[in-house]
Amino acid sequence: MEVSRSLIDREKIKNGFLQEMAREAEAKGLIKLTSAEDREASWREILRTNPNADNSVWIFAYGSLLWNPAFHLVDRVDAYLDGYHRDFCLRTIIGRGNEKQPGLVLGLEKGGCCHGQVLQIDPGCVEEELAVLWSREMIASAYLPKWKKLDTPHHSDVYAVAFVMDTNYPYYAGNLSFEERCYDLAHGEGPLGRAADYLFETVFALEKMNLTDDLLERYVARVKAIRSC
Predict the structure, then answer these.
(1) Which residues pair with 150 in a beta bridge?
(2) What does the pLDDT look like over 159-218, one tens digit per residue?
């Protein structure tokens, strides 16, 4: 798969790159950005309710966090989440899409299961790294961060933060057909690159883990067909 990389690193996130990128859309009333205070309150609540006995903080990676975590981590382990599946259910007009042609990114929805990885945040800088992560994932409240228990090969009773799709979010794509989603994936492009590359990178990351996601493979086949027309 041909992939055009446009990765965002933690320093750009810390410096407000994503907020600056989204400011024009907010000025038009297209999205509402979260405040730094609201994001901090959210991740502090996550810390307060940490169910891990050793207070370790793990993040469930199922999409771009697999191939571009952009925070300091000390461990990563293959993991399995029951009761949720990944799908391209979040339309984006910033990042990998624009106002005229939205793109799509992944979210977790109820039902099925999802293979990915759990990433352990460096215990020496948990608060700083959560602030970075929330500035990236919670920029506009599209997700609901929740502790979920995951199955892993070598770690028992690991709870990780999973970013679950908020189905009440205005750009939730639950009403789009598979074909409509493929169109957005094939044509969406923004400051962070093409939506199609987000798809391809995720599939490539899963392949390196010897995993196949049948739904994502269907997206790849159809998006490639659309892009070749």
Answers:
(1) 158
(2) 999 999 999 999 999 999 999 999 999 999 999 999 999 999 999 999 999 999 999 999
DSSP characters for 39-103? Answer: HHHHHHHHHHT---TT---EEEESSHHHH---S-EEEEEEEEEEEEEEEEEEEESSSS--SSS-E
Beta bridge partners of 115: 80
The pLDDT of residue 111 is above 60: yes
Confidence tier at 25 by pLDDT (50, 70, 90): confident
How deeply is 204 buried, as exposed, middle or buried, from its count of CB atoms within 10 A (0-12, 13-18, 19+)?
A: middle
Beta-sheet pairing, 73-92 with 103-121: antiparallel
Residues identified as active-site: 137
Place of tokens 């009333």: 29
Q: Check if CATH label 3.10.490.10 holds for domain 10-223.
A: yes
- Bridge-based pairing state of the strands 73-92 and 158-165: unpaired
